[in-house]
Amino acid sequence: MTGLPPLPAPASLGDSVLAALAGLPDPTGTDVTERFEDALGRAFGRRYAVAVSSGTTALHAALSAVGVGPGDEVLLPALTVIMSAQPVVQLGAIPVFVDSDPETLDLDYADAAAKVTFRTRAIVPVHLWGRMGDPARLRAFAAEHGLLVVEDAAQAAGTTRAGIPAGAVGAAGCFSTKDGKILWSGEGGFVLCDDPDVAAHLRAVRGHWLTPPPGGRPQERLGLAGRMPVLSAALAHANLARLPALLERRRAQTARLLDALAPARGLVPLRPGPEESWNHYAPLLRIDLPHPRAFAEHLAATGVPSSTGSFRLVPCDTRPMFTTGRAPCPGTARILDRTLAIVLTERDDEHVLERYAATITREAAAWRP
Ligand SMILES: *Cc1c(COP(=O)(O)O)cnc(C)c1O
Q1: 161 forms bridges with which residues in the sheet?
Q2: What total number of domains does the chain contain?
Q3: Residues in contact with 138: Cβ distance below 8 Å, sequence separation at least 6, in sequence order
Q4: How does the average pLDDT of the chain come out, rounded?
Q5: How confident is the model over 239-287, as pLDDT tens digits?
């Protein structure tokens, strides 16, 4: 394996945190965060960015800001983590899980249409593994049924499709900066939007409604303890400056690993969709071996981390707190049982990737469950 692009400017992280630290304690905490938000708006091409404490908070604040409330139904893919659905429940709304197409990983729009009712208010597409569905199709579906679009783009910073960045398809785009995402800051998140009223609601709700929208009074309603900590904002800002180089490195890591796995038995790389410029969040392979989920779990035990093997990702509609008596989503189960989504970090160098490739190749050849 030839060299990867080097880790970009690691010293900038320390410098940024030290500079922010010099201004602490600052009960208003606004300067560092505001500069980060300005930079986010420019980087992602949306008018407003509001930094929050996590990706889950980003979704909660965004759904609240677009008006989702008690009794509303919200469509979202079963192909996701529980954090996509939790804010829906916390707002008193009802998550309605939609299947995904095993060929494209995009939403199964026939299933989505069948699940629309007069209560359906919003749809939350989730760009899992950084893969983004067709934005034109999503917008057309939302327009046809009068739904708001709030994207869970937690894993998709840097992905675009048909020229539209993840997080810029609908009313609000939600991101996480938890460690493990490409743009990380320990903990944190942010919401992107273009509507000033949505932005004002986001700023109010993230901090106990202390800074109300124009015309409102402070703390006339409840909000969240959802601000982004100053040091996380400083880290996230430094990482935003590194983002193009981090994306280039992730692309190279994924390409190297998939190249090295080309001869491996029973493993077929998944390719991005038409006009999709994928951030390469996780190298994705279809496992054409018997008992594929057990194979992913076996790999995790042998030192190759993955979504299903390490984190036991299952269709969200099968989690005990979300089971509704509806039929489970078969396409989603098929995708999750058969997809090896390898977990990478920016620090994974040639040696780590070589070890992953060697382990996967050896274990696939020997796999006789
Ligand atoms: C990480 C993640 C979240 C939640 O983000 P947190 O910052 O951990 O709250 C939500 N959705 C997806 C798809 C994620 O990957």
Answers
A1: 164, 276
A2: 2
A3: 107, 123, 125, 149, 169, 170
A4: 96
A5: 999 999 999 999 999 999 999 999 999 999 999 999 999 999 999 999 9
Is 123 part of any domain?
Answer: yes
Nearest one of 367, 366, 362, 313 to 342, comparing CA atoms: 313
The reported pTM is 0.97
CA distance 23 to 261: 49
Same-domain pairing of 231 and 315:
no
- For the Cβ of 239 lying below 6 angstroms from any atom of ligand 1, the answer is no
Provide the residue range defining the domain that includes 332. Answer: 243-366
Can you read off the two tokens belonging to residue 228?
């982004």
Catalytic residue among 60, 131, 178, 181: 181
180 and 311 belong to one structural domain: no
Query: How far, in Å, CA of 206 to CA of 60, rounded?
Result: 9
252 and 208 fall within a common domain: no
56 in contact with ligand 1, CB cutoff 6 A: yes
- Sheet strands side by side (includes 267-269): 267-269, 284-287, 339-341
Residue 346 in any domain: the answer is yes
What is the CA(83)–ligand 1 centre distance, in A?
6
96 and 132 in a single domain? The answer is yes
